[in-house]
Amino acid sequence: AQVGALIGFSGAILTWIMCEAMGRDIVSVILGGAGTDNTPSTGETVEFDGEITTATIDAVAAALLDARNVIITPGYGLAVAQGQFAVADIAKKLKAK
Fold first, then answer.
1. Nearest one of 54, 52, 74 to 90, comparing CA atoms
2. Is a pLDDT exceeding 60 seen at residue 35?
3. Which of 17, 39, 57, 61 is packed most tightly, with the most Cβ within 10 A?
4. What's the whole-model pTM score?
5. Residue 90: CB partners within 8 Å, gap ≥ 6?
């Protein structure tokens, strides 16, 4: 029971930290939009300014090999995709260079 409480509490702390980082209200995150109107928006389409940069695997590999320093910042998406093993392999190869 104590381990479950510790795990639950640490999850609550992580949720609070992520809400603070995203600037979201923890209550709205926990309730998942309960009580909100889910009808589709009929407003104007929003157009974003900026540019898209695409790269091939070979170009990224070359850029990593040419770099003097590489900083990898793992996040939630990496964990969900279970990409940590691929990143670990890349890090090993870069350290061996």
1. 74
2. no
3. 61
4. 0.42
5. 64, 72
HSE-CB for 9 with a 13 A CA cutoff: 6
Integer Cα distance of 28 and 6 in angstroms: 23
First to last CA, the chain: 48
Token reading at 39: 């009808």
State the DSSP string of 13-67: HHHHHHHHHHT--HHHHHHTTTTS--PPP-SPPP----------HHHHHHHHHH-
pLDDT score recorded for residue 38: 57
pLDDT digits (tens, 9 = 90+) for 36-70: 665 666 677 778 788 888 888 889 889 999 999 98
Q: Which residues contact 91 (CB under 8 A, 6 or more apart)?
A: 72
The amino acid sitting at 87 is V
